[in-house]
Amino acid sequence: MGLAALGRRLARWRDERALRRHAIPGPLWDAVVAAYPFIARRGVDDRADLRRLCSLFLARKEFHGAQGLTVTDEMAVAIAAQACLPILRLGIDAYDGFVGIVVHPDEVVAPRETMDEDGVVHAYDETLTGEAMDGGPVMLAWADVLAAGDTAEMAYNVVIHEFAHVLDMADGVADGVPLLPTAAARDAWIACLDVEYERFAARVEADDEATLLDPYGAEGPEEFFAVAAEAFFVAPQGLRGEHPALYGLLASYFRQDPAAR
Ligand SMILES: [Zn+2]
């Protein structure tokens, strides 16, 4: 047996073991599916693939509760299910760049500093519901994760937002451009995303309050990609109606067509 074949066999063996050790009990899985309409309305095959992917996710990632929070199995599966939706057709290896997930009970106030043109440092507080850093860990506010069933209509989902950043950073840069198979695909991606981003930023600038996407997406192309990914998975028909080209771009990247269901 060649080395490549041996590697594949070892990887398969590791996955099979992970699936056995981290099998998600039926009642727990059903409760998570029921809590999130954007998972519940998926087809039987998608839900079965998602459940399997969640076991691999639980085997490979480490959850840490912050500020005295204990991360229960229910919480871990709820996070895993939403985190694995974007990689349903990309595979678990797409998340190899990090291991840790830090769960806070609620929003976190982070002290920040910025320097103005005159070199004067200004201190301010930023309120975070989640954060993803290159190489991990991913930080999430549990209150927002829990509310994701109710906030789906508003195209809001903190888990998908942060894991879109993880996919974006797979090439080392948070710029709204994930790893793509060819240079041509990359060029096409940038061409489409730039047009959509500029148009969206102009709407936000003009105080258009009717945007489906979170105005926070106007902060930069990387945030635009993350908020677009949220809408793609939790409010897909809205995104397809308002941004058809962007929807098509995401559908080809994620290899999913959630609005079709
Ligand atoms: Zn973000």
Describe the structure.
By secondary structure, the chain is an alpha/beta fold. It is built from twelve helices and six strands. It has helices at residues 3-21, 26-35, 37-40, 44-60, 73-84, 142-146, 148-151, 158-168, 183-205, 221-234, 236-242, 244-254; strands at residues 62-65, 100-104, 108-115, 121-128, 130-132, 138-141. The chain has a four-stranded mixed sheet with strand order 1-2-6-5. It has a two-stranded antiparallel ribbon with strand order 3-4. Strand 3 and strand 4 form a beta hairpin. Helix 8 packs across helix 10 and helix 11 crosses helix 12 (244-254). The longest helix is centred in the last third of the chain and has 23 residues, at 183-205. The protein is globular and about 60 Å long. The chain starts with a helix and ends in a 7-residue tail after the last helix. The model has no long low-confidence stretch (mean pLDDT 95). The protein binds zinc ion. The site of zinc ion has 4 residues, from helix 8 and helix 10.
Write the layout of secondary structure elements.
Blueprint: H1 3-21, H2 26-35, H3 37-40, H4 44-60, E1 62-65, H5 73-84, E2 100-104, E3 108-115, E4 121-128, E5 130-132, E6 138-141, H6 142-146, H7 148-151, H8 158-168, H9 183-205, H10 221-234, H11 236-242, H12 244-254
Bound molecules: zinc ion (ZN).
